[in-house]
Design a protein that fits this description.
The protein is of the alpha+beta class. It contains 3 helices and 9 strands. A hairpin with a 5-residue loop joins strand 2 and strand 3. The protein is globular and about 55 Å long. The model has no long low-confidence stretch (mean pLDDT 84).
């Protein structure tokens, strides 16, 4: 019984660790606010983060100074907050599914939507694919972005 519980715990912890990592990677390139243990807050674009939660932030404002970049030691980082609304890839995939029924796959693991197995859409727009179908995907994406920014 103990081996069963131990193996279940290992599987669950690896899934949770992977999900945590995916969420952290998803914050890269986004505006964040990182607060240190001494209460200073640095706000800017998250450029990178490692397994020790060391963070690199670009275009930093806060702590009564402006910096081009700052690297914060993970042992002093109290919290990291996402300060911009995340892009809703799932809602976009649902919208695309109405136009391309049965031909849309949401790939959250790579942060993309695959349409017709040949068009790749990310939060930045159509990343791969050409032709009339890609043009239609692009117009759906642009309409979605306009509506969600309101």
């Amino acid at each position: 019984m103990f081996n069963l519980v131990a193996s279940w715990w290992l599987v669950m912890s690896s899934i949770l660790f992977r999900k945590f990592g995916e969420e952290m990677v998803g914050m890269i390139g986004k505006r964040v606010a990182a607060e240190t243990a001494d209460g200073k807050v640095y706000q800017g674009i998250l450029l990178g983060i490692d397994e020790k939660l060391n963070v690199m932030i670009d275009s930093v404002t806060g702590a009564e100074q402006n910096f081009y970049k700052v690297i914060l030691n993970g042992s002093f980082v109290k919290e990291i907050k996402l300060v911009e609304k995340p892009f809703n890839l799932k809602a976009l995939s649902e919208r695309l599914s109405k136009v391309f029924p049965g031909l849309v796959r949401l790939r959250e693991d790579i942060g993309a939507i695959i349409v017709m197995d040949k068009i790749k859409v990310t939060e930045q727009g159509v990343a791969e694919g050409m032709g009339l179908s890609a043009d239609r995907v692009r117009s759906v994406y642009e309409e979605f972005v306009r509506e969600t920014k309101k």
